[in-house]
Amino acid sequence: MKAIARILLLLWLAASSIATAGELRGTGALGLVIERATGSVLVVDTLARRSLGRVEGLGDLSHASAVFSPDQRYAYVFGRDGGLTKVDLLTVSIAKRIVQAGNAIGGAISDDGALIAVSNYQPGGVRVFAADTLEPVADIAAIGAAGKSSKTVGLVDLPGRRFAFTLYDAGEIWVADLSKPGAPAIEKLTGVGKLPYDGNVTPDGRHYLAGLFGEDGVVHVDTWKAPLKAERILDRYGRGEEGLPVYKMPHLEGWAAAGDRLLLPAVGRHELIAVDTRSFAEVGRVATHGQPVFAVARPDGRHVWVNFAHPKNDTIDVVDVQTLKVVHRFAPGPAVLHLEFTPRGKEVWVSVRDADRIDIYDTATFAKKAEIPAQKPSGIFFTARATRIGQ
Amino acid sequence: MRRPTRSLLWPELVFALVAATAPVLAEEVPNAGKLANLVRQDCGSCHGLTLRGGLGKPLTSENLRIWNREQIVSIILDGVPGTPMPPWRALLSESDARWIAERLQQGNLP
Question: Would residue A321 count as lying in a domain?
């Protein structure tokens, strides 16, 4: 009986590799892996630790990210070439695709799941689309106070159908209220600092932070305050020392908000800076293997996993948030580009680009549980993001 | 941005000359595959995998035509202060940088 059951299970697994919407299944354990060089994505199952199939034809995904519909059926993938692709995770196929700009950097979905906003480099600004049809809803040109168009970065959703984003060239932070989608109400904070390279919001949707590249510091906006105010934190954290070369920009996406501490990548320093989430003052530093790119908190907030910029990008540091010490350092392989925890943090998926592989590790023992082949994998995104503000 | 001082024919002439000697150049740079991968993947983090730009400027031959070879070599090795372009001198030799500059300007990165 046992053997028959096993054969039936194998047959079922084989059949389900071509998933169809007709089958009954949940999507809470699903996710996407970006294959950056081939413009494709893998739909993956985090419980089975395997790929369910590949979706091709998503354009240039050399820089890409994804958000999920509230029902966790659809992923919206933002490509480098301005492509916005709605992927159906159940049918492993493209539900809808548009090319909305010449060069894009990322996007966000509104708290009600109705609007998709995309952050653009070319022509700059933010464009907003209806999540169901991808029809255009609003076009927000990012003309800074100096009258010039700006690339936008650090686009996140805020409660109340709002989006926050940062103007890279102009050095401004804008908060757009899209309660009336056709007529966005925008609050602008000007002169916040030089070359803000990315921004993100705390998991409660309250505090927006933008990292600066052009000077040592971070800009903090408490979105509960009216009117909004940009405040500088971690001012001159480099202590006047000359920065080290930065071979890849840090990303604040998936940043480490762990309990009452945030761990932020320093720019031009091989360090994370720990910030108290009440006072926003520095409470410590962690010396790391290289220039941090992603510092991602395990969902329970006890550990933060960090990857690094070229040429030190074969390594991951695991930092204990209480002691601010590296408790584990290992080298999964060449070009570790991204990592994503399973929803409650039991396992972590790591993309190893130049090994064409995803590695899955147990986060308690650090033992490798599985490998999944993938073509030049970069970003990994699980559907649980649908339930989180700012993701 | 500085304008080129040479004749407009210059890039085409160089292209013709270098194209003729390209196999020799490839032999002189044993790490051509590695270098090309570095340009696409790592320069590509800012300039785009297709080199059509991102946070950094596009690195297509068309866009690089306004710079001369030495300027590009010096930007690669020493970076552009006040911008995110870092100095690559610690990671790349001068001949690596020259090879990259040539290939980018000719638009024939392997």
Answer: no
Range of the domain at A173: 100-248
Report how many domains make up chain A: 1
What's the pLDDT at B12? 45
The Cβ of residue A22 has, within 10 Å, a number of other Cβ atoms equal to 7
Chain B residues whose beta carbon lies within 8 Å of the beta carbon of residue A248:
42, 45-46
Domains and CATH numbers, chain B: 10-106 (1.10.760.10)
Average pLDDT over chain A, rounded to an integer: 93
Residues 61-120 of A with CB under 8 A from B: 62-63, 80, 103, 105
pLDDT value, residue B10: 45
- Note the Cα A56 to chain centre separation in Å: 21
Q: Which residues of B touch A122 (CB under 8 A)?
A: 53
ipTM for the predicted complex comes to 0.79
Of A119, A227, A136, A115, residue with least CA distance to A179:
A115
How far away is chain B from the Cα of A23, in angstroms, using its nearest Cα? 38
Helices (H), A136-292: none
| Domain CATH code at residue A107 | 2.130.10.10
